Amino acid sequence: MDVRAAVALEAGKPLEVMTVQLEGPRAGEVLVEIKATGICHTDAFTLSGADPEGLFPAILGHEGAGVVVEVGAGVSSLKPGDHVIPLYTPECRQCEYCLNPKTNLCQAIRETQGKGLMPDGSSRFSIDGKPILHYMGTSTFANYTVLPEIALAKIRPDAPFDKVCYIGCGVTTGVGAVVNTAKVEPGSNVVVFGLGGIGLNVLQGARMVGANKIIGVDLNNERKALGEKFGMTHFVNPKEVEGDLVPYLVSLTGGGADYSFECIGNVNTMRQALECCHKGWGVSVIIGVAGAGQEISTRPFQLVTGRSWRGTAFGGARGRTDVPKIVDWYMDGKIAIDEMITHIMPLEDINKGFDLMHAGKSIRSVVLY
Ligand code: NAD
Ligand code: DAO
Ligand code: ZN
């Protein structure tokens, strides 16, 4: 079938909105009509050419929501009409990783997904017979896409697509890091570095679980009012702190953070996030993705004296199990999303969404098909 897609033809160039061809679902696959998709920094990172694993030409996009149109042979958990959120971290419930409660990193389709291909090693997208690659197994910058059944979370039908698409990455990553990875206890003191699309969701996750002090750190003073809407109790701009940031945060938390979260992708702030943690028990969770080849450092004595360094992908969430629950949290008013969707646009204007992101003017732009 012909579908409309924003195609990344090559690195460093704007996306081109065009008609491409999409083959129907093969065994174990599902055709989904994408109704809305968020534009995330990871799409921009890949499009820029800085992502060493970025492949072109490809159809980017990994933060979508839509409706099942057709299922391939053997698909048993979904049917046409079901509402779904695509999962860049699938959940097969059978692999060694899925069977280990310590991780959410299902590996069932990892190899082919990383190559921009469906599990059988081929692409469903093409232009004039030449294949176009999938991206993160999702390719939500097309109004129809094909995904493996294990990479789709079935959600309730009354959830609005233009809001819950954000649960496909940003919301789950931030809230999940608090709930699943750190398991923040009520009364904890929390420090969040970077108050963008991820950090704001860490703030509201911390509020939801009943954290005590929720301290946001950002160079942009405009993030203060925004952070306060999502539960931040104190704002710190490192440029306005006299002396070193780490002792300032240790003092502000009364001895150090019980939990800190790095939501920037900067190896220097990763170190600060670890070192502002409480001696004896503080845990620092890295969410930000640093540039290729970069390394983190600290004095090992920081770990010897009881601080721990952790990392998290997709908020430690098992998508088919956890994403429907996060949709319920939104529908029940336990978490906010509407206030973070700052811009809505048609597919034709998708490059404007990238411009707004680069200018720091948006939290989330959403393409509504
Ligand atoms: P963003 O650009 O919207 O937010 C970053 C924020 O950090 C901005 O508000 C900026 O002002 C602030 N900032 C930048 N440098 C700073 C510094 N030195 N000190 C203090 N504040 C600083 O980014 P985002 O969309 O929120 O994503 C954050 C990171 O999370 C990115 O690296 C992204 O790739 C990563 N990410 C990780 C996962 C995962 O599963 N681990 C998922 C999605 C995104
Ligand atoms: O299983 O090896 C693996 C890869 C898992 C990918 C996890 C993605 C990490 C976050 C990247 C940014 C997501 C938008
Ligand atoms: Zn698995």
Automatic annotation (TrEMBL):
InterPro entries xref list: ADH-like_C, ADH-like_N, ADH_3, ADH_Zn_CS, ER, GroES-like_sf, NAD(P)-bd_dom_sf
Keyword annotations: Metal-binding, NAD, Oxidoreductase, Zinc
Catalytic activity: S-nitrosoglutathione + NADH + H(+) = S-(hydroxysulfenamide)glutathione + NAD(+); a secondary alcohol + NAD(+) = a ketone + NADH + H(+); S-(hydroxymethyl)glutathione + NADP(+) = S-formylglutathione + NADPH + H(+); a primary alcohol + NAD(+) = an aldehyde + NADH + H(+)
Enzyme Commission identifier(s): 1.1.1.284
Residues in Enoyl reductase (ER) domain copies: 12-367
CDD domains reported in the protein's UniProt record: alcohol_DH_class_III
GO MF, any single term: S-(hydroxymethyl)glutathione dehydrogenase [NAD(P)+] activity
GO BP annotations listed: formaldehyde catabolic process
Domain of life: Bacteria
Cofactor(s) for this UniProt protein: Zn(2+)
Pfam families per record: ADH_N, ADH_zinc_N
GO cellular component, one term: cytosol
Protein family: Belongs to the zinc-containing alcohol dehydrogenase family. Class-III subfamily.
Task of the protein: Has high formaldehyde dehydrogenase activity in the presence of glutathione and catalyzes the oxidation of normal alcohols in a reaction that is not GSH-dependent. In addition, hemithiolacetals other than those formed from GSH, including omega-thiol fatty acids, also are substrates. Also acts as a S-nitroso-glutathione reductase by catalyzing the NADH-dependent reduction of S-nitrosoglutathione.
PANTHER family, sorted: ALCOHOL DEHYDROGENASE (PTHR43880), ALCOHOL DEHYDROGENASE CLASS-3 (PTHR43880:SF12)
Name by which UniProt lists this protein: S-(hydroxymethyl)glutathione dehydrogenase
UniProt lineage: Bacteria, Pseudomonadati, Pseudomonadota, Alphaproteobacteria, Rhodospirillales
